[in-house]
Structure formats: structure tokens, C-alpha cells
Amino acid sequence: MSDDMLNFLREEGIRESLIREVASFRNANGVSPDLDYRIPRPRFLYYGAEIWEQAITALLCGENLLLVSPKATGKNVLAENLAAAFGRPSWDISFHINTDSSSLIGTDTFENGRVVQRHGPIYECAVHGGFGVLDEINMAKNESIAILHATLDFRRIIDIPGYSKITLSSQTRFIATMNYGYAGTRELNEALASRFMVIRMPTISSANLRKLLKREFPNLREKYMEQFTGLFQDLQKKCENSEISSKSLDLRGLISAIHLMEKGLPAGAALEIGITNKSFDDFERDLVEDVIRLRIPQSPRREEIFTD
Amino acid sequence: MVIHSQQKQRALNIIWNAAADYTVKSEFEGYDAEGRADLYWNYIIGAIHRHCDFARLQSYFDRVRPDPNRPFYEGLAWIGLENYAFAKSRDERPVLESLRQAYAESVLAGRRPEAFYYLIDEISKAHFARALGQNPPVRDQVAALLEMLEFDAAATTEEIVLRLNQVVDQHFPLAQDRKKSPLFHIDLPFRFNLPLKKKHPGGLQNPFLDISLLNVFNTAASTPGEEPAETDKKAKHSRKSLSWEAIKEQQESKARETIQARYGLSMLSEAQTRALEQQLCTGNHKDCRLHFTRGEFAAQTESDHRKAVLKQREKNRQHFKENLARNHNSILKLTNIIKNTLLIHFEPSTYRSESGQLVSGRVWRNLHLNDNRVFLKSTRDDIGSLSVDLLLDASGSQIDRQEMLASQGYIIAESLQRCQIPVRVFSFCTNSNFTVINLFRNYDETSKNDAVFNYRASGCNRDGLAIRTVLHLIEKTHYDHRILIVLSDGKPVDPHGIGGNRTDPDLNFYADTAGVNDAALEVRRGRLNGISILCVFTGLDEDIPAAQKIYGNDLVFIKSAEKFADIVGVLLKNELRNI
Fold first, then answer.
1. pLDDT tens digit string along B6-22?
2. Chain B residues inside the 8 Å CB shell of A238
3. I need a labelling partner for B314 at 20 to 30 A (CA). Which of A50, B22, B149, B436 fits?
4. Where exactly are the structural domains of chain A?
């Protein structure tokens, strides 16, 4: 499995020297067997050689990453893929408005008549050399996550009152993700942002989308693959030109819709519930419908779309 | 901005999608018998934009434009162009086969709106019958025409134009006698705005209000005692000598009087105004002047300008009334969006405390850890006080959108007020070297929203100075969070130039890059001082990049009036969430 990821990276055209370094990172650092379940076996692969190289290089240099982009661009896919490629166990931490030190570092709890420490995911990553995925890091209040400042910079420590100071394991890395749209998305504290290498991820290109669809649906006919890719590009262009919001520009929705088509649902209905209905505005739905109808007929037979 | 109906917007979206270019300005659109945008036909129009050199093709349309039977010539061309567009696009979009089939069937079944010309109907039906693979009986002449018109995929734009002209010359020569005015266009008003966007030079109209701003200024002037006295002294001193200085002074006073006669009495004394000018008219705005007014006039003033203001006020109100339902809906929607944001994001927060509501799951902490904070206390987040200032661009470039801007200003002011957020509404324009700041309603004037309809556009706009001035006024207030919303088209223009270069006005013209950069600088300064600055863009598509340069990401464009509340709502919601 581990070699699968490295082979995939080779196929994507990542520099051989980088792949060798990743391999030596893996070999040098083991994982205890009871944490083996935390090493991801990714369902989706991230396509995009340039982004891969940037991310791998940063992580090899001991930096933390911040992935910034609109939704459905593969931030979590990439984070998971990176943990798999480096062979490290990963912890997923979803940030929200009530995130605070107890959900991150840990807190006391009462178990079997004794007070024990319940370690939070950041603590676990630190101790076991894991990759922490800090999802939607900008959603937490800046004051609450100031606690991470010492963890994320050159100090690499967790020093909380009442507990002993721990230094992060050398394999620990943090990969944060953040949506950044337009007209005032919640800002990330500058001091925190400075502790990451920031990668702006592009929306998926046509070529990469084709690869993704091909891998996910090996039985999809070429003709329809072109049309689905084209459909996504059309929606993207419309969104860039501010004619529709990004609600219907949803890669997850598209992939799910194709799954439904594979199961036998008519294309029109599948795309309606996967893409069109993601927008809650009547007029916007009309526009999205138009785009879909200019690519996909209402009710093609299943054999027209899939080879089996 | 033109108010597009939904179907028109749909049609344009289909055309842009097909053309793969969202800057295309199409003269043509397709609708079905119920007035709904037609999917197939609009796709064809867009495809022609993509696959043809439309500028060349335009020469044909321009040629036939003056003719009284122009729709005939256009209909003829589009039959052939449909063939071409379909041939070019079918490989890329296999779904077009079925769409074309459906379209052809509807033509033959007579479900399409009838063309004005019977011949076009006949040719069209014959063409689409052939498209369906049928072989209907047609008159020889029609068959011959179709041979010439049905362009195939290999044709170039030149060939197409050549062939079209041939058809016209051989079979349907243009009317040579009468020439229709080439300026008139039955269709899209937004095309009109392009040639007509000349600035209306020095058109001076006056907003009109009746409350004194003196209160605000009295708190604003930090040392009210000193500054005016000093400037008074200086003024006295210079009048003593019969020098160039004295003459300049007199000219200055005269200029101020003229401006007051045009725009309304100054709300401040001359000394106060000069003090502000000393403070604000520096750097790029050296030698500029300011005028603050509420649009009040001395009782005996009966000028053409005042009449024009009153006339525009009526127009503004009329326009608002005409779309009353939509406007009221917008107000309700926007009010709700703001209220919801304030409610959801400023929910009470809870924290552990030594008193309050007991959390049973934490009692063990008290027993074993001597932790007394086993209670939950809730406090309302104190977001602090919030104020919003609205600044309307009242320069001549907005002259075609006055009613719309007045409505928009009113909707925003009314919505904010219903949420009990203090609102102040200004407009600005520039005339001679005076930048006129007109106050419509102040924070506490909750029943004076109607005054926003006094908005009238004229003159130029020195955006940088106006923004600097308004920011100065905002900084003097005591609200914790302050937002400035500018309704503008992002085109600073002031012939007065930069650095008061009156000797050579062509140098350092305050426009284009220089103007945009200056305005952008002021906006950045304001933001660094903690004032949020947002823009509701009201201009033409081609000016969007300049506006983005000035206002950055906090900018929205309103493409249709129906969406106004939603879009502005999103802008405000995001801004409020960041507080």
C-alpha cells in the first residue's frame, strides 16, 4: 500500500529525488502497530504535480502547511494523501466556533474513580509523530487557538499550566485547511498564519478532472467523460463571472450524481439532486439547469454513459 | 447597470456559456412563444460569437441596419448561421443533436413565435425540415436560397459575409430611398449607455435637506476655540494689504458664494470649513476646497438648479414607487439578513464559573480537584456599538442611474435603521475645485430616510478627497465598529488635477490610474484605521478592475435589481461576522 502512493507520485511526474526522500522518511520512522489504523488508505487521490511538490518539500523541511482555496478543491484529499505518502498516522480536528484548548490539547476527566488526563488530538500528534489535519482553522475564535502558537513555530512544544512540557516528535506536522472566498471571509489571525507555509490550491483543471473521473469510474464512456468535465468547467466559468454563486459548483455533487447514474437513476434527476438543488435560489437553479441541459440529455440510456 | 429581466439574464448566460466568453455583448437573443429564453437558439448565438469573427460578421448587420426591413435581413442571416453553428459545435456537445431536433420539431409544429415576414417562416420551416432529415416540397426559389444560406463547418467568416451580401444583392436589394437613423436600436438599452456615457459637464444640481450637521462638527473639532480664531486672524491679516493675496481672498469668497448658491448653504462657518481644508486638502489634494451642505437654500433662492433638484426628486420617488413591491421586498429581505446575522453571531457565550447554572457532569471536579467552577454562566458578547455611513457617488457619470442609486441608498438606509443600527447618508461630487459633501440624513434622524431621494448627480468626482473627508468625519464618532459603504462606479475624475497644478491642467490629471491610485490609498488608510470600507459597484463592466483596485475584495456588483438585497445582504453579513 505504501508503495502504491509512491508509485502514484511517480506517475504524476513528481521529481524522483523528492520521492526518494519521502521513502527514506518512511523507512526511518516507524509507527506503533496499534496506531496503524490511523494511517490513511485514501479513497481519492489528489492530482496536481506542482502542488504535490510544494507540499512535499515543505513537509520534508519540517514546516507546517496551510491549504487555502474555495470548497471542493481537494484540500482534505491532499492532506490525507500526504499522511498516506509519508506513512504517518493522522488525526482530524474540525475547528468551529467553540474550539478551545480542551478540544485541542486535552482536559481532565474522571474515569474508574480516578482523575485522568484525556489527551486531545494535538497532544496525540505531538507524542506519536502524527499528521494533524486542522480543518477550517479560520472558524475558531482567534483567542482560543492562540494556544497553538508555541506548538506551530520553531519552539515545537506544548506547555500548558498543570502539565509537563512536551516537545513535538520530529515527524509531527500540521496541515491546516481554510476556505477563502470573497467579500470578507473570516480572517485568520496574522500571527497564526505566519506559522504556516500557505499553498493556494486551484480549482481542479480539466485534465486532472478527467483523471479523477477515469479513476473513480473506469466504466465511464469517453464521450460522457468529456461532457461531465465540460459541465464542471462551464459551471466554473459562470461562477467566476459572478453569474451564479459557488453553491452549485460542487465536485462532490458531480461525482455523487455520476454514482447515482451508475446505479440506474436517469441523468437529469441525478444531476438535479447532485448539483442543481445545491442552490436554494430559483433563478440560479434555472441558470444551472441551462448549463446542464447544454451538456447532458435528459434521459440517456445507461448503456450510453457506462460501458457495463 | 441595466435592470435585466430574469429571462434576459438567462438568455445572456446561455450565450456567454456557448461563446465561452462572459464579455460578449450580444445584439441578439432568442425567446420562445411564452417569452422564456430559448436554450437552443441562444446557444447558437453564442456559438457564432465563438466560431466566427463577429466583428467581421457585424459588417453585414451594420449594412442592413438602416433598412426598414432590417428584421428580414437578420432573420435570413440567422437561418444560415444556425446551420454553421450547429455544424461547428456538434462534436463538442453531442447533446445539441437532440436539442436541435426538439427545436426543429417545434418550428414545424408552429410552436415558435411567427416571424414578421412570411417568407422567413417559409424558409425557416424548409430549413429545419431538412435538418430533421425530411424532404419537404419547397418552391425552387426557396431551395436555391437555402443552398446559398446553409453554411457548412468549413466556411470562413469572410465567405459567410460574402455569401450573405450576395444573397441580399441578388434577391433582396436594400431600400435605397429612406435611411433610418442609425442610432436607434430596438433592443438592449445597455448598449446605449456605452456611447452616451459622456460626462455632463458642470451640470449643477442640488440635493435638498433641512437639518443642521453642526452637532457632529462641534464634537468633531478638537480645539474649536483655537482653529477658527487662528484662521480668522490670518484672514484679517491678509485683507489688510492690497496685495495679490487680498485679491485671491476675494476670489475665494466669491467662489464659495457661487458654490453655496448652487448646492445649498454651508453647514459650517467659513472658518470651520477652512480648518478642515487645512487638515484634509493636503498632498494630492492641495489647493482643493470643501463644501459641506444639507442642501438647504436661503428662502429667496429661486434658481434653475433648485428646480432641477426638485424635479429629480420627483423622478426618484416615482421610480421607487413604480417598483414598490420589489423595493419593499428588498428592504424586508435585507433587514432580515442583517437581523439574523446579528442574532446568530452575537449569541450569548457561556463559560465556566463559580456561580450560575450547575453542570452535574462536572461535580466530580469539585470533589476531587477542588475546582469550584462547576457552574455555567452565560454572557452576551458585547459587540460594542456599530455605525454605518453610506456615501453615494453623485457625479455626472451616474446620471443615467440616478433613480436606481437613490432607491438603492434608500433601501440600505431603511434596512439598517430597522435593525436599529445608526446610519448616516452622504453624497459627494466635485465642481470647480470644490468637493461638495451633501448630508441627507444623520445618525439620529430616524424618520428622515426619505431625504435620500434628494439625490441628484452632476459634476465630477474626486473620490480620494471625498473618501478622506468622510473618513475624517467618521473617525470623530464614538462608535466601536464603523462601516463605510460607498455606492460608486469607481471612476474618479476631476479636471483640477493633482497637486493643484493649475498652470498646466493636462499634467497630473486626476483620472484613470492617478485617480484610482489616490482613491485606493485613501481606502487603505481608512482600513488601517479600523474602519471597514465596502463598495456597491454601480458602473459598467469595463470599470470593474479599477473599482477592484480601489476597494479590493470588499466589492459587490449588482447585475439585477431583483438580486440587490441578496447581494448587499451577503456583503453586510460577511462584514458583521468579522466583527
1. 788 899 999 999 999 99
2. 13, 16-17, 22
3. B436
4. 2-200, 206-305
